[in-house]
Amino acid sequence: MAAAIVLPVVGTAGITAKNVAGVFTDLPAAPPENPLPQRTVLLDRHGKPFAQFYSQNRKIVSLDAVAPIMRKAIVAIEDSRFYEHAGLDVKGTLRALVTNTQAGGVRQGGSSLTQQLVKNILVENAETDAERDQARAPNLKRKITELRYALAMEDKYTKAELLERYLNIAYFGAGAFGVEAAAQRFFSVPASRLSLPQAAALAGAVRTPYGTDPSLGAGHRERLKQRRDLVLSRMAETGAVTRAEADAARRTPLGIRLKPEPGGCAGSAYPYFCVYIQREMLGNPLFGRTREEREARLAKGGIILRTTLDPAAQRAAERAISARVDPRDTEVAAEAMIEPGTGRIRALATSKKYGRNPGNSNLGPRTTFNLAADVAHGGGMGFQAGSTFKVFTLAAALRKGWRFNRGFVTPGVFVPAKGFADCAGRPVNAPNAKIFNSDGRRHPGAYSLSSGTWKSVNIFFMALERRIGLCPVVKTARVLGIARADGTPLREVPTFTLGINEMDPLTVAGAFAAFAARGRYCRPVAITEMTDRNGVRVPVRPVCRQAIDPKVADAVNYVLTGVFQRGTMSGQGIGRPAAGKTGTNNGYTSAWFAGYTPDLAAAVSVGDIRGSYRHPLRNVKIGDRFYGRVEGAALPGPIWVASMSAALKGVPASAFQRPDMSRFGGGHTPVLTPPRTAKGPHADRPGSPFRKKPRFRPWQNILNR
């Protein structure tokens, strides 16, 4: 039958009459079907979508998930004899052949649904523009090839299977591929709930998806309505619906309710978390052997990624930052929150909106830098972490046997001229450097391990680092996940303990979370489970290790709780046990606060996006407040307090494990010898050169608050 039908025109396709029968009896195998591109969807910890990636907006569904009226509509308008033929609509093809023969080329379509399915498959399988053009070429040779494949498809699949494949591959317009995406895009309903007028509109859109795209304006919607009414008439003619039903549907408005389907991170409610996931997936071999394979999986894979994002914590961080830092400020704040013991990232927030500024300017209310993360995850170069790094020297000292009250007298100025070597054993002394405390005073002072931490004394920690060794401090930091934001090796120099290395908040938060988890460090993780297009679930388990002795971690926690009670964060708290450390760099180039409870850890950084060295945080207006100088307790600290209080609302308070006082309690700190004073009847008289000097108070000698 097929041979007889095409006999008048096969000559134009380069096929002789002698070979016509063989063309349609010696059929090829059905064309290979590559997996159709589908959306990759990101879910928060509660299973709610917050972002998606796709090259084609499509969600494959079974035929049972498509309303029966939609199946009837597409068959009525595209191939009313679909259930009667074996891939070739004889009447339709004869009609098209007469028209095309008279015109000398293809002018009218007579393709069955199966032929249309084949055409779509060949277009999807094409890897180059030339192959795609060939699959769409308006010539008889392509039509004959298409028909041969259609007959093979009919032999391979049932009618229901063919219809299901067609409804999932067809393009409906407005960026929607497949009936499920189209139903959501056009009418904001799933395909299973399409009404008669809606189904007729979608069926009408398939023939001219660009000319009837409802997102393009009133003219396109009017053409879509005309196509809908045509489908309704055809459905009545074929008996798919009654004439009365068709007439009633024709009288209804088109009823377009466009549902936005933004792709990528710019359209996400939580763009910075989205960027982190995107970069993690593209850079992690877990999601594909090569970057090209990972890119294809992200854009076309149809996978579902359940993430660690906690919307409550995310909103808490965003609100705490926005209440104090304006997006238009050149000073930027960023915060990362992470769960101790699992490494699950709960929030990533910055003071700027995500996106590009007009003219792609680096300055403005927007940025594409994920400032809460490192360069590998879309972040910038980071800011020097300042005195938050003193915690690693504290931990190393406790590990070496230091006790809470053990200390020494510090000089008024410290010169790292000797005693410093990196982990390769090379001397890294800096005889020309002079270290002062943050207040600039050059008084000597006596500090213990505890009081030196609470008051964040620079000179004390420089001397302590020399006593216990620079390398043990560096190794402690490394084992707790510390790495520079730009990915280069840590700078192993005497001022390591003062936070000379540029960091990102997430890395710092992850290290501090390990103390909250009693020394168990977990690599920050944002994905907990991946479900592929076939429904196979692959859990992503935390990567953790016992980085430091749990009892050493308990001792660190004990000292750092004092920062809130007797140290640089006195008067600020969250109403539950918490520990932390402020960080203010020399010259006020940046400011930090990193802290934690047993349930949640967070780190906040503040610096100037134009460059921290050229634009220090002195005499600046940030938000609606003027700062003579920005210290860790002045801005990052309050952001941390506000965000943690809100993020932990409703979460029962947990207590830290008490330290082993037999191991860490006690200790001795030499008493600072008071200065010699003159005696005499005029010694205390104002203006007298012999006036008794006021007693020195160690807490006045504060470094890097």
From TrEMBL:
InterPro entries linked: Beta-lactam/transpept-like, Glyco_trans_51, Glycosyltr_51/Transpeptidase, Lysozyme-like_dom_sf, PBP_transglycosylase, PCN-bd_Tpept
A Gene Ontology biological process term: cell wall organization
Domain Penicillin-binding protein transpeptidase intervals: 337-599
Residue ranges annotated for the Glycosyl transferase family domain, each copy included: 47-235
Chemical reaction(s) catalysed: [GlcNAc-(1->4)-Mur2Ac(oyl-L-Ala-gamma-D-Glu-L-Lys-D-Ala-D-Ala)](n)-di-trans,octa-cis-undecaprenyl diphosphate + beta-D-GlcNAc-(1->4)-Mur2Ac(oyl-L-Ala-gamma-D-Glu-L-Lys-D-Ala-D-Ala)-di-trans,octa-cis-undecaprenyl diphosphate = [GlcNAc-(1->4)-Mur2Ac(oyl-L-Ala-gamma-D-Glu-L-Lys-D-Ala-D-Ala)](n+1)-di-trans,octa-cis-undecaprenyl diphosphate + di-trans,octa-cis-undecaprenyl diphosphate + H(+); Preferential cleavage: (Ac)2-L-Lys-D-Ala-|-D-Ala. Also transpeptidation of peptidyl-alanyl moieties that are N-acyl substituents of D-alanine
GO molecular function, one term: serine-type D-Ala-D-Ala carboxypeptidase activity
Gene source species: Planobispora takensis
Ranges for region Disordered: 660-705
Any one GO CC term of the record: outer membrane-bounded periplasmic space
Protein name listed in UniProt: Carboxypeptidase
Alphabetic keyword roster: Carboxypeptidase, Cell shape, Cell wall biogenesis/degradation, Glycosyltransferase, Hydrolase, Multifunctional enzyme, Peptidoglycan synthesis, Protease, Transferase
